[in-house]
Amino acid sequence: MGYDAWRDIEYRPEQALWRAQRLPFEVQLFHVGGGHPNPVRLFEVVEGDERALSVPPRAFDYGRALGDGALPAMPEVSGFRVHHPRRRPLPHNELIVFLGASYFRMPAGGRFFGMSARGIAVDTAGPGTEEFPLFEAFWLVRPAPDASTLTLYALLNGPRITGAYRFIVRPDDRVPVVDVRARLFLRAPVGTLGIAPLTSMFLSGENQPQGGGFRPEVHDSDGVLTFGDGEWSWRPLVNPAAPFTRRIRFERLGGFGLLQRDRSFASYEDTEARYERRPGVWVEPVGDWGAGRVELMQFGAAQEFVDNAVAYWVADAAPRVGVPLDIAWRLHWHADGGPNPPLARVVQTRRGHGATGLPPDETQFVVDFVAAAPAARSGARIQAVVEVLGPAQLLDTHVFPHPVRDGWRMTVRIRRSDRSAAVELSAVLKQGGRVMSESWRHALPPE
Asked: What's this model's pTM, rounded to 2 decimal places?
């Protein structure tokens, strides 16, 4: 079945699980087909007892998908979505969707979906071929009539890993939350086991403009925010020519997220995709995850339909085959720019020259910081502490109060001596030795 035919199949809302009981949550199903050929098993848990869910053929409206064919005797299901009708009427009351491999996603602050979370990531950035384990079965716990949360369980299976998951979904108009707890077992060694993976899309942005289109920027997320070892850092995303991986080490992780900080419609001018309303996701570790790294892997994309950015956690202490790994995290789905550090934060990173132009081997960035509190315009001068790692030379940097935003503008100009190698730029604003901003860390991939 092709994608268009699959899209023509709709679940009948009146068949939704728990609608007849008028419970605070309802479940609708997705048919197998299109890009989702793998069936999943569904169970309902009622007072501790599991009941297999059977799907009658008339639960789906097949539209033109069947042509002259007969209805299937027992439709197969590829995933499901949860609705919260007490918060909004149809069709804008979707709460969470589980569909494809171990992917799931939520809208935040409205009806717009964007990036996805995943149950696990296996060898995403190598050394071997990436593996996509599947959520093969789900157990949906029937909510009480006054329930404010929904609990469900999932079984994950892949060639080298299996695991059990519990999800507690907490609705909220601005920042819905999903509490995730997993017990994982490796069947065979893996190169990289990515915990709490997030997947998004970055095609073009102010730091990497794309000519020819009418839209200034196209992305579901514009950067990665990390907090760990006492430092907040912002890393703008890029669309590299070849796979490009950044490894960000922490002794103790406080959180990380793929976020959409730019919330201005004028930045995108897309009346259909509405990228300014796409959610960002912040991962909050539950318990001490120990030492390790956030790994950010990006690869080149020519279309906005390709998710080309993924971020996840990799622990130093790799799990052993057959030994259970118990781990938990909390996902915050932000309708705004995400968590705000108690420091000035980066709100845009622009790449390009001014009125006089630049030599071919030079690159300039203009970075705007917005103050966490009203910026003091007197006292010690604000300084930008800039470092360059890689085959490049720092030529010039300036920082001055922003005349429109409550914050500062920083300019950084470099000369690259070898464009076939990556360059890492980092900067932080200081005032009299006091750190005033999160760290700006921008990587230029090989060209």
From this structure: 0.95
319 and 219 housed in the same domain: yes
Task: Please give the full DSSP string across 355-400, using - where no structure is assigned.
Answer: TT---TTEEEEEEEEE-SSPPP-SSSPEEEEEEEESSEEEEEEEEE
Distances from the Cα of 138 to the Cα of 6, 126, 267, 421, angstroms: 22, 29, 40, 46
Q: 156 is in which domain, residue-wise?
A: 101-334
Whether the bond between 243 and the residue before it is cis, its omega within 30 degrees of 0, is: no
pLDDT of 90 reads: 66
**How confident is the prediction for the chain on average, in pLDDT?**
93
- Average pLDDT of the segment spanning 379-394: 91
The first and second tokens of residue 395, run together, are 């030529």
Q: How confident is the model at residue 318 (pLDDT cuts 50, 70, 90)?
A: confident
Same-domain status, 378 and 330: no
Residue 273 pLDDT: 95
- Per the structure block, which two tokens stand in for 404? 């429109």
User: For the chain, what's the residue count?
Assistant: 447
Judge if 329 and 354 occupy the same domain: no
Spatial separation of the C-alpha atoms in residues 359 and 439, rounded to whole Å:
28
Band of pLDDT at residue 7, cut at 50, 70 and 90: confident
User: Within 13 Å and on the Cβ side, how many CA atoms surround 49?
Assistant: 3
360 in the same domain as 411 = yes
**Do 225 and 364 have their domain in common?**
no
How far is residue 277's CA from residue 268's CA, in Å, rounded to a whole number?
11
Q: How many CB atoms lie within 10 A of CB 285?
A: 20
The H-or-E segment that residue 409 falls in is strand 407-416
> What confidence score (pLDDT) does residue 121 get?
97
Q: Is residue 39 classed exposed, middle or buried when 0-12, 13-18 and 19+ CB atoms within 10 A define those classes?
A: middle
**Where does 34-76 show beta strands of DSSP type E?**
41-46, 49-52, 60-61
Band (pLDDT 50/70/90 cuts) for residue 414 is very high
Which of 334, 353, 372 is at the close of a domain? 334
Distance between CA atoms of 19 and 25, rounded to whole angstroms? 8
3-state secondary structure of 258: strand
Q: How far is CA 218 from CA 79, 264, 274, in A?
A: 28, 12, 10
Same domain, 132 and 257: yes
Indicate which CATH number applies to the domain containing 421. Answer: 2.60.40.10
Same domain, 161 and 219: yes
